[in-house]
Amino acid sequence: MAECIKCLMDTEYGGSIRIDRSGLCNQCIDFVKNVRNRTKSGSEGEQALRKIVINNRQRHSNNEYDCILGISGGVDSCFLAHSAVKFGFKPLLVHVDNGWNTPTSVGNIEKIVDGLNLDLVTYVLDFEEFSSLQRAFLKASVPDGEIPTDFAIQVLLWKAAREHGVKTILTGMNYFTESGHIPEWSYGHSDWKYINAINEAFGDRPLNSYPKMTLPDLFKFTYLRNIKRVSMLNYLDYERVAAEKVLVENYDWEKYVGKHNESTYTKFYQEIVLPSKFGIDKRILHLSDLIRANQMTKVQAKEILSKDFSSSASKERILIKYILKRLALSESEFQVIMNDKNQLYSDFPNNSRYVSAIRAIIQILRKFKMYPH
Ligand SMILES: [Zn+2]
């Protein structure tokens, strides 16, 4: 077992983390290798972005909107909306309501929509069906309980693009603060086969209305329909703290405690289920990203990690009670889940081999400049 000398990655987190002779992990090495290709900074970034905006407008000459922008109320997506308008995009905002929004996130979305005078489409997931899928992921004992939400958002953004004749999806993904990934900690963002397998094994109803997308569908959207994803924050020297300040000053945006606490389920999952059942602390991933991007030192990160999550024991109990009630799970069923043997996505039918193969092909195409960075 070894920890990276630069970030917080440790080989104990899974076989995907490797430390080389110099003491650096593969994620830090990849970051240094890729950051120049994946991101542009300063005036170079702004110029590149302005070019994208002009080309994109030409692709949408007859359209009211020229991009789809998914908004959660969190800092990344709200800052993305702010920047998109600033640079001349005409976005249609899309929000996916999975039934677990916090009042803060709803308020933040309203503030951005009003402040920027943009249109918003909200897709509301059928809660009976969606919560059944969430229960299935809990019962499967895999650490991928956030995948039902992430997958649905992705598919509904493609759907909105198709319905509104838009060929660009702006994403808040950014290489500065989201460079790392541990598949053993979370897998399935593009894998309908895996999601369906979990539901077939542990779900109690068919997924009739839940958004679906197979790999051939993905190919159809990205390649045949030529719908592009633009990770705009990669052009803007993105720093989360500075972004929060802009949002507070311009929109009276409200800051969350914790990175992903725009959803009560995310809070429950990341602060209770993942650490207690799987020994996974997602903050490690996020803090390592910030260290790599030189937005934090390792000492500062360790200091944050040494503190518990924000909730007190009594607040935690209230949260668990609330979640279990809404999920229609009893205390004893939850205890069984928490004590059950942990599994990985690889224990279920999945498309990971194809997903990896596609990623590898993309890397090769990028080398020959046949696929954008
Ligand atoms: Zn590292």
Counting H and I runs of at least 4 residues, what is the number of helices? 15
Q: Indicate how many domains the architecture comprises.
A: 1
CATH fold-level assignment: Rossmann fold
The tally of beta strands, per DSSP, is 5
**What is the molecular shape?**
globular
> What is the terminal-to-terminal distance?
33 Å
**CATH top level label:** Alpha Beta
Order of SSEs = HHEHEHEHHEHHEHHHHHHH
Give the CATH superfamily. HUPs
Q: What's the story with the biggest beta sheet?
A: 5 strands, parallel
Q: Rg from C-alpha positions? A: 20 Å
The second-level CATH architecture is: 3-Layer(aba) Sandwich
Low-confidence stretches at least 5 residues in length (pLDDT < 50)?
none
The percentage helix is 40-55%
Mean pLDDT: 92
Strand percentage lies at 5-15%
Account of the protein in words:
- By secondary structure, the protein is an alpha/beta fold.
- It has one domain (41-279, 311-367): Rossmann fold.
- Helices cover 52% and strands 6% of the residues.
- It contains 15 helices and five strands.
- The chain has a five-stranded parallel beta sheet with strand order 3-2-1-4-5, sandwiched between helices.
- Helix 3 crosses helix 9 (240-251), helix 5 packs across helix 7 (192-202) and helix 10 packs across helix 13.
- It starts with 25 loop residues before the first helix and ends in a 6-residue tail after the last helix.
- The chain binds zinc ion.
- Zinc ion (ZN) binds next to helix 1.
- InterPro entries: N-acetyl_sugar_amidoTrfase, Rossmann-like_a/b/a_fold.
Identify the notable features of this structure and list them briefly.
globular; alpha/beta; Rossmann fold; 373 residues; 52% helix; 15 helices; binds zinc ion; 6% strand
